[in-house]
Q: What sequence folds into this?
């Protein structure tokens, strides 16, 4: 959300859906909502999602509140209660009551909707987009944003935690994007704890955890979990990976509201925990601008100025004229020597006698 009083509208999108923080079912929504455009105080948006409730194939249940709903909520986090439906200003009755998606038998839902919320796009930006199940429960959440992202962070160079060398974890946490104060990141690992193949041990703190910590080093204590600002309760307690029997962790995605912005997260330690909750691996989160990326290509030469262009044109013209004169000269010489110049014959040899003697003409005067 931005400052009130600004009238410029922006297009919004919501992607990177995560399970609603209190949802424990099997539905896993993915896809996107958007672009969401605003005309007056009405938001129009398209949606294309998978993993929605297949029970919504016949539409919503009108007797159940929020059945198959796809709604903007007042909250601005996916890690806690998203509060109620968003509407404001002159709109005093909930406009979301009948707004719903219809899926197919596989949970795929595609469509478009328009809802007058009473708010501008700037007032809607940053709020939670919630997907509901057929029974009205909240199953997925994503935050509405402009798509103009903060710097992206990555963690790749994993090393064993400084006082626990028993595991050799490799892989990547990438990309980690920030919207508001929520970090969304994907990760895939090898060499993690195979005991996490059945998930975390809920009776053990940090079991199978993947967490951002306060510390900024992998050679010393990484300190506790990172959260700050308005987030006063540790948001990392339930964040954990599930491995294979060989310690492989397939690609997964997590969103956590830490209360911090992208600049607050960059440079901190990303820690992988074992099944017993101990820290087994560490890598430092590095923002895109800090990575050793190849330098940009050298800039192209500046375009020639108008005066340069004219000089180049004059030089080219002179060259053409000189070339033509040379050709004319050569052709003229050829024509002259072939058609106009008479060849000079050598003088006839002196008269010879059959014996080879030279005859000399003697003139006698009369």
A:
């Amino acid at each position: 959300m931005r400052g009130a009083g600004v009238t410029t509208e922006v297009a919004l999108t919501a992607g990177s859906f995560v399970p609603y923080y209190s949802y424990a079912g099997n539905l896993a929504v993915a896809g996107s909502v958007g672009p969401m455009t605003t005309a007056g105080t009405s938001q129009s948006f398209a949606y294309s999602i998978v993993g929605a409730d297949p029970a919504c194939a016949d539409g919503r249940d009108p007797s159940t509140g929020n059945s198959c709903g796809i709604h903007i909520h007042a909250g601005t986090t996916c890690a806690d209660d998203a509060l109620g439906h968003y509407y404001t200003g002159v709109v005093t009755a909930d406009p979301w009551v009948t707004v719903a998606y219809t899926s197919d038998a596989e949970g795929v839902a595609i469509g478009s909707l328009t809802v007058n919320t009473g708010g501008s796009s700037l007032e809607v930006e940053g709020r939670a987009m919630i997907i509901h199940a057929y029974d009205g429960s909240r199953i997925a959440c994503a935050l509405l944003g402009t798509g103009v992202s903060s710097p992206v962070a990555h963690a790749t160079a994993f090393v064993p935690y400084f006082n626990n060398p028993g595991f050799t974890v490799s892989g990547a946490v990438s990309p980690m994007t920030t919207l508001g104060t929520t970090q969304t990141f994907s990760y895939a690992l090898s060499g993690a704890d195979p005991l996490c193949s059945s998930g975390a041990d809920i009776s053990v703190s940090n079991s199978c955890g993947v967490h951002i910590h306060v510390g900024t080093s992998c050679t010393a204590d990484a300190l506790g979990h990172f959260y700050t600002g308005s987030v006063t309760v540790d948001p990392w307690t339930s964040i954990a990976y599930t491995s294979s029997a060989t310690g492989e962790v397939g690609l997964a995605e997590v969103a956590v509201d830490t209360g911090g912005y992208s600049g607050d997260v960059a440079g901190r330690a990303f820690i992988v925990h074992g099944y017993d909750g101990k820290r087994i691996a560490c890598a430092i989160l590095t923002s895109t601008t800090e990575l050793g990326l190849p330098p940009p290509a050298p800039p192209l030469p500046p375009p020639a100025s108008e005066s340069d262009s004219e000089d180049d044109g004059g030089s080219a013209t002179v060259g053409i004229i000189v070339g033509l004169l040379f050709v004319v000269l050569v052709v003229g010489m050829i024509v002259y020597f072939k058609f106009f110049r008479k060849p000079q014959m050598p003088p006839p040899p002196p008269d010879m006698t059959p014996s080879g003697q030279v005859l000399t003409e003697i003139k006698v005067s009369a």
